[in-house]
Every structure is written in structure tokens, then in C-alpha cells.
What we know:
- With 524 residues, the chain is α/β, with parallel strands linked by helices.
- It is built from 15 helices and 20 strands.
- The chain has two domains: 2-41 and 248-424, 2-Layer Sandwich (Alpha-Beta Plaits); 44-246 and 429-520, Aminopeptidase (3-Layer(aba) Sandwich).
- The radius of gyration is 25 Å and the shape is globular.
Amino acid sequence: MIGIRSAALALLLTLAVAAAATPGARAEGPRPDWEFSTDQAFDSASIPAYAGRHDAVYARIDADLDAHLAHLQRWVRQRSISAQDDGIREMAELVAGDLRDLGFRDVALVETPGHPGVFGHYDAGAERTLVVYMMYDVQPVEENWRIADPFAGELVEHEIGTVLMARGATNQKGPQRAFLNALDAIIQEHGTLPVNLYVIAEGEEELGSPNFGAVIEPYLDRLRAADGAFFPMNIQEPDGDASLNLGVKGIIYFELESKGGEWGGPAKAEVHGSLKAMVDSPALRLVQAIASMSTPDGNTILVPGYYDAVRAPSDEEQRLVNGLALRADDAAMQKALGVSQWIGGMHGREAIIRNLFDPTLNIDGIWSGYTGEGMKTILPHMATAKIDSRLPPGLEPDEAYRMIREHLDAGGFEDIELSRLSGYPAASTPVDAPLVRAAIGVFNRYGANPRVAPWLAGSAPFYQFTRTLGLPFVFGGLGHGAGAHAPDEYMLIRPAEGVKAAGLAEIEKSYVDLLYALSEASSE
């Protein structure tokens, strides 16, 4: 029992990290070393800061700021825990009602096999059209909050200033309602918006967005005619630093399960541990199957073809990576994560390349048999692991699943059950898209010159915008928040002296600027 658990823990620790190598000629083994053809670096400061002025709208935001804050509090006070179906429909109806109050004439709750979505259309008669993505669901709450009720929407004095502390404050109700506040201020002053808007909201993002396709399906033709899509989000650090990601990796998430049966092992229930001398162990078999998918250190995937499918960095992506490398601070990131070093001591551009262009194989959880206090010597009849793999552009979910299944079968692990839980491809947007340039110009206006990455190493179903709808997609915005999915989640409302991240008023003004910048952007 102890040996099995120790081996599983070792695999968990070693497989959980992305792999390391040096760019250059292709190395021995399955992983490519990407050879860069340019040392040029993208500099977001080269994009002119947005220069438009909308003083009447800014003044309206300042005058109505207390009411705007009350709207944020109203949103976070409505429970909407998707995993528990707690307040979900009520939150969907709240979103729909707010869109109608703002003047959206075409608003509907979109029924799906799961939680409902929300659709809204504001026709301003404008030349440009923007799709705005929203999620109205939140994660369950846990203990150890510094406030008694995470759904009370309290204002709390924090070391960085006054914050709104609540579940959903920054992920994502706060920035989303701030965006709607900006719309309200524009409409109050000018009677309409500078762009047409579609709002598409789902209530299952925290569940992996299994039915988001059903939300957009009735409106595909209309949405495809838009000029871009935007997801309001707080992406600043307290010092004002901002990172703008132009996409995400894809993902597959699955369970591997080993059960006793015809191949051997107890089929119905655990048996006495002494019988291991004669009886196969499903737990050991699962550990061996997982171990077969990587090198002994866990840092190189051995599934045939897994790296071959990854698309090589384009010239544009190389310039973006080079720009990131100029501003990289590995030590600070390692300190924040509580990690002593990256694999093999890599740093700078090498680490960025591996983080963005390597697929990963990671054990999220593994369990079998007795895990309580003391001793219980048994031979478990089943063992299970939850595994995720992040997929760079080029490596498609169905192909990844196929290669893993074929690898297990070729290794004699046909009895290991593979259950798909989720999967979607990567998404990316070119840096020269008018929406991207407009967003960077707005960041630059507020002194938040962003680091721009070709994509995030994490995953989200943004392919629905870039591939299904064929639109450039930007997710981000001024503002700071922390604690998403954790206790004490907050969004900064009024920064303390010396804190450079935007407060609520500046966040809303930047959203105003973004809409006007898009309306004025050249299509070239």
C-alpha cells in the first residue's frame, strides 16, 4: 500500500509541470526544439495610445459611480453556483433584465440541455459590431473567508485600497457589470452606442462550457457578421502591469480507470493485501500505464506523434515571444508560485517557449484503496486518475485522445478504461487585428503598456469565437482582482495611494474608450 501511494505521488509531482528544452535544431527524441528565424521583438508601445476624448461620458461615470458600484454589488449578491444549480436561472434572468433596461431590444433566455444562456442585441445603426462574451456562473464557496457571507458583496479595506469582496467579484461579475455601466453612461449622454453589440452569456463556464455551442447556435449567421468579440476581464497587477493574451491552449480532460477482471485482479471488492503474491493489482497497473506515457522524470511525453502535431511558431508569434522574453521575470513568478526553479533551470525565452508550445500531461488527482489514518493492508479492486493535457495550436482534441488510446493499447493496457470528460481546441487571434490594436491603444492611453502573448498557457473554450464564428477575440481590460475560485475573492474599487491598477471609474472609462476606438479603427 505504502509503495503504491508513494509511486503515485511521485508521478503526480513530476507530470504536473511543462517540459524543458532549448530552441534550435530538432533534438533527439519526440520533442522538437523550435528554431526561431528572427530576433525582432514585438513592442506594444509602438501602437499609438488612443487619443479620443469623451469627457461628457467620463463625467457621467464619475457622477453615477455610487449607483454603478451598487450594480456590481447587486450582481455578486445573486447566487449563481453552476456546479450546484444554485441561483442559476435567477441570475440569467437578472442579466437579461439588465440588458433590457439598457435598451437592448432583442433579448432572450436561450434554453440548453444544461443551464440557460442569455442573448442580447443592441442595434445602434453603427458601422462596426462587437460580440461581448459573458459568464454569469461562479464557483462554490469554501470556508476561511474574512467576511461572514461571500455573497453579501461587502466593501472591505484592503492593503491595496477599497475592494469589493465576494464570490464572483473579479471572476467575472465585477468587470462584466462595469462594462454594462460604461454602456449606460454612453447611452445616457448620447442616446446610443458607437458600435452595435451582441451580448452572449452562459451559465456553465465553471463546468467547462459543455453547452455554450447551443447558446450561440441559433444566432450563428448574425454573430459571424460581427467585427470581433470581447470578454471584459481584470488583468492588471497592483503595480499597473498588464498581460494581454491573444488566445488560449486547448485541453483534454479524462479519467483513466483500472479494474480487476478477466486480465486479473479482484473484480468485485478489495481483498487482503497478503494475496498480492498471487493476485494482480489494478492500482499498480494504473500507475504503470500512466508511467508509460512519459519519460521517468515525467517531463517528456512518450505518446507517439504527440509533439509532431504541434504547429511551429509563426514569424508573428516569434516576435511576440521575443517581446515577452525582454520583460520576463522568472524569479518573481517562481516566488509567487512557491516554486524554486523551472525544469532543468531553464529561464527567459526558453521557458516561455516551453510554456506556450509544449503540450502537457498532468495528473490532477489519483486514488485507490485505503487512504485514512493508520494501516489497512488491502489490495484494491480499482484505481482511478484524473488527467489533463493542454494542447497548443495544431494538436486537436480528437487526435490527442486517439493517440493516447492507441499508446495504451500498444503497451498492453487495453483493459484501462479511458473516459472523456472534456475537450476543445486552442484559439488564437493575430496581433494586427483592428480589435487587438484598439485594445492595446487603450491600455497605452492609461499607462498600462501590456505584455502581449500569442496565447495563454491555460485553457478556455474561446475557439467558439475564433473558429466557430471566425472572429478576432480579445479578453482583458484594466482593473485588478484576485482570489478567483478561492477565499477572499475581490475586485479593486478605489486604489490606495501608490497602487497603479485602475479603480472602478477608470475601468469604466477605459471600456468607453475601447468601444469608440473600435468604431474608429481602420480595417486595413
